[in-house]
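Write out this protein's structure.
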Amino acid sequence: MIINTIAATDGSEAQTLQDHPRFEDLLLRTLPALRQYALALTRNRADADDLLQNAVANALRARDSYAPGTNFKAWMSCILRNRFLSDIRRRRETVSVEDAPAELFARPASQDGHMALLELRRAMGRLRPDHRLALVMITVQGMSYEEASAALGVPVGTVKCRVFRARKLLHDWLLDDAAPRITHAGRAGIAGADDGRDGKRMVTTPRC
């Protein structure tokens, strides 16, 4: 368990925690938000628990690098994000957006609502990873732009740009999905309008 990881220190590690009681308290208080963030990143509860466990272990090893009085949540979010990206690079795979838990995006709904949720999941999966990360931090984890900026290591303006573009793309894609479908025959005559995957149009945006 994660709490056991926090408590399972011995020798010099236990003494270090005693020297910094606020670190352990901050870590315990931040766990719920970190768990939500891990779930938003991995879209799988078991993977989220593993990610959080590993991030906590990393934080305990690096706790001396935390400056008391600074933003602990942003510091921990950065550790968790870096661990997630490191795991992805090692596995050389991405997590399917179809595994995203419904509670991240919508309330329990009717059949129509369920279909809308599936469309939202697919649309989230089409976002650029850096745009999706910024959107998750702000809208799912509830971080401020300043906190997300510190966690991502980019300027506040860049975070705002990524969130804005992510929201705009989701809005445009979902409106496109709600519009009447173009027939395959009609679509074949539109050069460059199809990316070959479920008739979805690819949208490119400037870097930010």
